[in-house]
Amino acid sequence: MKVAAIKGFSDILPGEVESWQFVEEKAREVFALYNFSEIRIPVLEKTELFSRSLGETTDIVEKEMYTFVDRDAMGTMLPPGPGTIRGSSLTLRPEGTAGVVRAYVESEMYKIEAVRKLFYLGPMFRREKPQKGRLRQFYQIGAEVLGRGDPFADAELLLLLRDLFEMVGLDGLTLELNSLGCVACRPRYREDLLSFLGERGKKLCGNCQRRMGRNPMRVLDCKEEVCSQLTGGAPSILGFLCESCEDHFGTVKQLLGETGLEFKLNPRMVRGLDYYCRTAFEWTSPRLGSQNAVAAGGRYDGLVEELGGPPTPGVGFAMGMERLVLLLAMKESKKAARPAIYLVWVGATARVWAFSAAHRLRRAGFSVEIEGEAKSLKSQMRRADKMGAQFVLIVGDEELSSGKGILRNMDSKEQFPVSLDRIEKEIAARLETNTD
Ligand code: HAM
Q1: What are the CA-CA distances from residue 343 to residues 267, 420, 432 (Å)?
Q2: How far is the CA of 130 from the centre of ligand 1 (A)?
Q3: Ligand 1 pocket check: which of 36, 101, 116, 138 to mutate, most ligand atoms within 8 Å of Cβ?
Q4: What is the pLDDT along the chain (436 residues), one digit of tens a residue?
Q5: Are residues 321 and 23 in contact, defined by beta-carbon separation less than 8 angstroms?
Q6: Is this structure's pTM higher than 0.85?
Q7: Is residue 229 within a helix (H) or strand (E), and if so which, with residue range?
Q8: DSSP 3-state of 228
Q9: Domain annotation for the chain: domains and CATH numbers
Q10: Which of 321, 323, 326, 327 to mutate to test the pocket of ligand 1 (most atoms within 8 A of CB)?
Q11: How far is CA 288 from CA 42, 50, 134, 171, 265, in A?
């Protein structure tokens, strides 16, 4: 019986995984340059962590979380039936910020050093409609700076992302920037926006009519043609910023100007999570179609306190791996890893010799593949070629008795006799000249 993977959950197979490893490696490099430390947080958290931090009325919390009741209460011991399950409600993390902040508060990291620059990578889960660049299990590389409220931290994160895109060879991305104001200035904007929407309310899509009362700013983000037309002339949040938000945003823009990082103001960018305030941003690519955001984030100055910590500002981003890799694949495909040496053996004694030689070579740092079946020399050579091995070492009874094996350079097709008792050295020398 064949069992297929779940819709929206996909495998990352050899051939593809090399691009992922390449991006992860570059991300680690850039995080080291900016002095970020890695944090690994659980995939599963209490549901309330997400409903409290992302917001009860966001799309994610309302309809996209993978939530289930754990078997940790007496109720689960009863025979199944309505109302018998009374365990805790758990959720597969739909994003990383909430978990990182929970860990920061729970471990009291702030007591040792208030400013923490953390990064994470791993899978997130959202029950969205799968399409190109949108999965139900997707991977993010994210970063959070906790304890810095100044605009220099926002600009530094944006520069880090720009550097990362450059290091992986990605161009053609647009940085869209907005400020979402703060608790002091947003209510005034909300009122103004509500009265603007009020006149058009009945004509908006059903989703927006529902959203309007709770979070009218989300209406500006609606992808429905009718909504974007109706709200074309909506008031801009940027006209309502208080002095301190205005200063903050002004400095972010100035710093980006100083460092030559181009951006496009997008006062309609709202972001789908409630924890944001002030700076919000998205890096988009027109090559991705409708799911065009490769990375996104912003400031969330109230979240640490909301989750029980001391008042601590925060700012961060997350980058979608699938989307980034899609863009890289449009440029070039990374070569699959190739073994340095393929061990071809003929005969049972040679097989045993080759088995322990492979182990020795691997311990000496070479990537080695060894033939697993008693196949003809010709078919073994064909496999080695298909696998892209750089060298083939051929050993049979004759080679074992003479103490000399045959080493074939698969690129140049040259062959050399090599002493079997010092193959590590012989191969190291040949590999060196081969890669020169
Ligand atoms: P987000 O905008 O929800 O923000 O997601 C960030 C990025 O994750 C998106 O720009 C996209 O590249 C990728 N992404 C999101 N959903 C999917 C999906 N279903 N399939 C594939 N890729 C997806 C956050 O998650 C915030 N935690 C970012 C942040 C960190 N803000 C502050 N700190």
Answers
A1: 62, 12, 19
A2: 15
A3: 138
A4: 999 999 999 999 998 999 999 999 999 999 999 999 999 999 999 999 999 999 988 889 999 999 999 988 654 555 555 555 568 999 999 999 999 999 999 999 999 998 999 999 999 999 999 999 999 999 999 999 999 999 999 999 999 999 999 999 999 999 999 999 999 999 999 999 999 988 788 888 888 888 787 888 888 888 888 888 889 889 999 999 999 999 999 999 999 999 999 999 999 998 888 899 999 999 999 998 888 999 999 999 999 999 999 999 999 999 999 999 999 987 765 566 789 999 999 999 999 999 999 999 999 999 999 988 888 999 999 999 999 999 999 999 999 999 999 999 999 999 999 999 998 888 888 877 665 5
A5: yes
A6: yes
A7: helix 225-230
A8: helix
A9: 17-41+97-185+241-331 (3.30.930.10), 341-433 (3.40.50.800)
A10: 323
A11: 30, 28, 10, 13, 20
Cα of 70 from ligand 1 centre, angstroms: 26
Q: Which amino acid is at 323?
A: R
409 with 391: CB under 8 angstroms? yes
Distance 319 CA to ligand 1 centre (A): 6
